[in-house]
């Protein structure tokens, strides 16, 4: 049976996500946006590359939700991106309204879908989608860790002049300035990073990872990153649709794991056809645990702002 993925938000991240899903023939794609003509135009343009690229999927763009009915996955990228000098958190209240409305409409049409959140501030938007959808936590997942680790892996591979593919990294915590790149679990083909370079270099790469999103915003000036965010989202979509059971760092709702409750925080999970099929609770050292708690606190503060607004 053909699979169906809805991508809400036909901007930079959404359009690239849709295009990559089609190019990999993972599913038919429905692209939704509030701006009239944009999803239709981009959808048709993507469809017209099918004969050249050789993919057989349907792609439609729309301003409504009827066409999204029965989606296996709904990816939410709708919202406003960061401008220079803005933190992801500045986006909070504007994007809360967008994600709330997109989730409400999408889940009416696709009650069994798995939701993947991309809109920032990510962890707070995941919380919003979980509460609005009423879905079990296995079916509401945030894309952050895959992107943050991809950035860390890129910087390490460049620094050491080795294949990007050979670098395995781990980044936990919220998708913000307090994210926690875990050096102890980062290696090149199994060789720990600490064996390959000195601690000052590692600290520089860790800091660049934390600032990875801002580095792109500074260059682009009018928006934030989208190629790597889209690629990271598609890795999650593929693991779910193909039931690959990849172990990836994703934002999930913790119910006691890592000593955290009722909060979305990035941790390693197994992604398969049911969504989050397992949460891995790794033993952290004191410093790592403290950094994770600090990151979780930052997420809790944002959710607190939303809670105070909706009560
Ligand atoms: N419903 C559907 N689409 C919406 C809505 C809505 N209620 N509100 C805004 N949009 C659309 C906009 O019309 C725009 O096309 O969301 C799209 C966002 O696209 P861009 O502005 O290009 O932003 P993008 O770079 O794709 O980032 C989107 O992902 O990585 C995060 O921080 C980023 O929160 C931002 C999101």
- What is the tally of beta strands? 14
Strand order of the largest sheet: 3-2-1-4-5-6
- The CATH superfamily of the largest domain is Lactate dehydrogenase/glycoside hydrolase, family 4, C-terminal
Number of helices in the DSSP assignment:
11
Q: Determine the mean pLDDT.
A: 95
- Total count of domains: 2
Structural class of the helices, strands and pairings? alpha/beta
- Architecture per CATH nomenclature, i.e. the level-2 architecture of the largest domain: Alpha-Beta Complex
Structural Rg: 19 Å
State the name of the first-level CATH class of the largest domain.
Alpha Beta
* N→C terminal distance: 43 Å
Strand content: 15-25%
What share of the residues lie within helices? 40-55%
Bound molecules: adenosine-5-diphosphoribose
Would you list the SSEs in sequence order as H and E?
Answer: EHEHHEEHEHEHEEEEEHHHHEEEH
CATH topology of the largest domain: L-2-Hydroxyisocaproate Dehydrogenase, Chain A, domain 2
Form type: globular
Q: Major sheet, described briefly? A: 6 strands, parallel
Show unreliable segments: none
Short descriptors:
11 helices; binds adenosine-5-diphosphoribose; Rossmann fold; single chain; six-stranded parallel sheet; globular; L-2-Hydroxyisocaproate Dehydrogenase, Chain A, domain 2; 2 domains; alpha/beta; 311 residues
Plain-language structure description:
The chain is an alpha/beta fold and 311 residues long. It has 2 domains: 4-142, Rossmann fold, CATH 3.40.50; 145-310, L-2-Hydroxyisocaproate Dehydrogenase, Chain A, domain 2 (Alpha-Beta Complex), CATH 3.90.110.10. 44% of the residues lie in helices and 20% in strands. The strands form 4 sheets. Strands 3-2-1-4-5-6 form a 6-stranded parallel beta sheet, with helices on both faces. It has a 3-stranded antiparallel beta sheet with strand order 7-10-11. The longest helix is centred in the C-terminal third of the chain and has 25 residues, at 286-310. The chain is globular and about 55 Å long. The mean pLDDT is 95. Adenosine-5-diphosphoribose (APR) is lined by residues 8-14, 32-35, 77-79, 81-82, 91, 95, 98, 101-102, 118-120, 223-224, 226, 229.
